[in-house]
Amino acid sequence: MAFSGRAGGQQAFPASHSLARLQAFVESLQAGRNAVSSAAAEKLEVAVSLLTMPGTLSLEQVRSVCFYGLPDVTPLRKIYWMILLGVLSPHTERWPDELRSTRDKYEGYINDCIDPNIMQKAQVGGPRDANAASAHSIREGRASLSESRPASDHPLNRDRQGAWHRLFEGSELFGTIVKDVSRTRTDLAFFRSESWSLPDSQGSANGGSDAAADGHTAAGTSAAATSNGAASGPGPVSFVERLTRPSSHVDRMSRILFVYARLNPALGYIQGMNELLAVLYFVVHSDPLAHDEDPLLLEAEAFFLFVTLMVHQRDFFLALDGRSSATLDDTLEQYAGLLHQRDPQLAQHLDHMHIEPHLYMLRWLLLGFSQDMELPNVIRIWDTILADNPIAIPDIDTSLQTLPTAFYIAVAVLRVPELRSQLLSLHDREEVLRTIQHFPMHDIQQILSEATQIRSDDIVARRERHDRRQQYPRNLERRPTWEKAKRVGEKIIGTLFRG
Amino acid sequence: MDAYDYLFKFILIGDSAVGKSCILTSLIENKFKKGSSHTIGVEFGSKIINVSGKRVKLQIWDTAGQERYRSVTRSYYRGAAGALIVYDITNRDTYHHLINWLADARTLARADISIIAVGNKSDLKDKRAVTFLEASRCAQENEILFLETSALTGEGVEEVFVKVAKMILNKIEDGMQHIEEGLGYHGLFSGLIDPATMMSGVHAGARSLLNEASPAEPASRCISC
Q1: Where are the domains of chain B?
Q2: What is the ipTM for the molecules in this complex?
Q3: Which residues of A touch B192 (CB under 8 A)?
Q4: In terms of CA atoms, which chain A residue is nearest residue B58?
Q5: What's chain B's Rg over C-alpha atoms?
Q6: Which pLDDT belongs to residue B91?
């Protein structure tokens, strides 16, 4: 198979590039070569010194550094996020190995997802290739096809198990993904496919100067030998071509989503995943020195960040299919209660217009606000969201467990005075919803500090409730039950009238 | 807050990337939003239009087109009085799926829902893959309205909404659409919501506006589903 042409004799790969860069950066800091403002410098020193401490990192510390926002110095954020999401372990000495295995695993996944037989078919059997490919490769291809496949296996056979079926299915999936990825964050030049061509897209022009690009060109040329000039054509051929030899960020992001969808058939690809990935992909690549890095390693890092992020987002995406989880419903209910506590006037106003939280929260929760803010703000807000994501909280007492941060941020957004007064002045359901959805969330600091405040107040309130319950268990049993009964009653009444 | 005689709920449905959200933006903001991303779940808009001397307020629910969002978007159909099924004239697949969307709308919204098929991107003339004639025949066979639009130039956009609103108004006048007086809480998910009930007791300003809207006849009407 063309793709894994270089997988065998892999030499020691510069997997620790980003770590080396971090080290160099710290040294340059110490030498005073980097101009950083004094406030930022302190923040930076804390963040860097934590990572460079010998031994095992304290996840608590990593979280607390990240929660209040990381300094915008690369590749710091990427490393922090990888620790928070569990792509890297807290054992710093293992990182080089972990990074290397990240890359190898990802390469393996790609090969698994692109069935070699299918690729061969696309290369030798594709309509555009027939003329272009050399007679030799056609002969070879036909021979291998007739040997390995029964006569029933042909392009028009829509047998679900058939390789051709999988090829068309894959092509369709990839097409859907590319379509969405190409219209993701197009306001940034970084994401516009035409403006970025990666070093490994230049064929063999790179020579031996760069180990990373070299590996890629080797694979690239061998693929090109069998599938001459099919790069720009539509259909299965170009799809396999783009998967095996991505030539832009759009191609690489599409490949990540393709591999993810293939490995997770239950979830597959759902619109919105592209938005999440874009943030992670950008953070991985926003390192100015990332150009020297092996593009496949960077892609693998983005892939694993995405996979682990999806563990947290899974419930929200599953809810789209009607596979709504009880926890999500419960969390939304808790959110509604929180809004009532924090801002009864606004909450009643929204209730009165029957604006249910899920109508405006769905996008925020699914996408972590990534469609509602400028990218730098999204990244800042994700520092907090990721830091707070409970990786594994022992389920001692659920009433003590706080809501995911996104919910506190949601309350904080509605509390922004400008938006709040606007909402209170509106009396039309659709206008209110439109106003919420189109509110430019610029003042991220204000939103975050409000969210943090709401969260810490909520923690206090939960503790108090918890303690009271322990003291007077009976008395307290009654109130929540009554409140719950009231809610259930309202729900039933609502359904009756609606129906 | 402007006064109006009727309130209709409209849904915008159709395949992904056919331009539903662009049609909505074009209607409401009179501009084309370039490079807009796909709709996650649902987006909202409202606008008052004049139809046969009546002021009609449209509440528009613009839905996500991707198949995977179908079960969420379906819950938004409820009580819609009008539906725009949008396809892309440069993409035959989106046209072929029209029939599925039609079935969805008729079963999930209300049986008497007024529907228009909208062929969007009419500005892309040289990429056209669906002819005006075949689409208009298909619409006729399925007893729905049909128009082509360009969200880019704004051509046909308002017309589409007016056309559907007019159809609903005609049904009301012919007595085919059942009219009832306000039904309080019932208004929650119905397509034609009683404006007075929605406002009652909340804001005097809004109410007085409603009162001066049509002093002779009750400003509030609710058409049940």
Answers
A1: 6-174
A2: 0.79
A3: none
A4: A430
A5: 17
A6: 96
Q: What is the pLDDT of residues A1-44, one digit of tens each?
A: 333 333 333 333 344 556 666 666 666 666 655 555 666 677 77
Range 429-488 of A in CB contact (< 8 A) with B: 429-431, 433-434, 437
Task: Tell how many helices (H) and how many strands (E) occur in chain B.
Answer: 8, 6
Put simply, whether A265 touches B (Cβ < 8 Å) is no
pTM given for the model: 0.78
User: Bigger pLDDT: A203 or B158?
Assistant: B158
Among B224, B141, B156, CA closest to B190: B224
Give the tokens for residue A47: 């963040």
- Sheet with B6-14, strands from edge to edge, namely B42-51, B54-63, B6-14, B82-88, B114-120, B145-148
Of residues A360 and A215, which shows the higher confidence score? A360
A185, A366, A494 member nearest B40 (Cβ) = A366
CA dihedral of B182, B185, B189, B191, whole degrees rounded to 10:
10
Task: Please report, as a single letter, which amino acid is at residue A360.
Answer: Y
- For residues A119-135, average pLDDT: 44
Q: Is A320 on the interface with B (CB under 8 A)?
A: yes
Where along chain A do its domains lie?
A: 15-91, 109-142+150-320, 326-477
Query: Burial of B62 by CB count in 10 Å (0-12 exposed, 13-18 middle, 19+ buried)?
Result: buried
pLDDT tens-digit map of B28-37: 999 887 777 8
Low-confidence winner among A37-51, A103-117, A372-386, B106-120 (lowest mean pLDDT): A37-51
C-beta separation of A86 from A391 below 8 A: yes
Assign domain B6-174 one CATH number from 3.40.50.300, 3.40.50.80, 3.30.420.10, 3.40.50.620.
Answer: 3.40.50.300
Of the candidates B10, B6, B58, the residue with the CA atom closest to the CA atom of residue B173 = B6
A337, pLDDT greater than 90:
yes
Instruction: Pick the closest to residue A498 from B134, B225, B120 (CA basis).
Output: B225
Phi, psi of B147 (to 5 degrees): -155, 155
CATH among 3.30.420.40, 3.20.20.70, 1.10.472.80, 2.60.40.10 for A326-477: 1.10.472.80
The closest of B61, B56, B26, B35 to B157, measured between CA atoms, is: B26
Query: What is the DSSP code (8-state) at residue A10?
Result: -
User: Is B40 in contact with A179 (Cβ distance < 8 A)?
Assistant: no
The span from the CA of B67 to the CA of B104, in Å, is 12
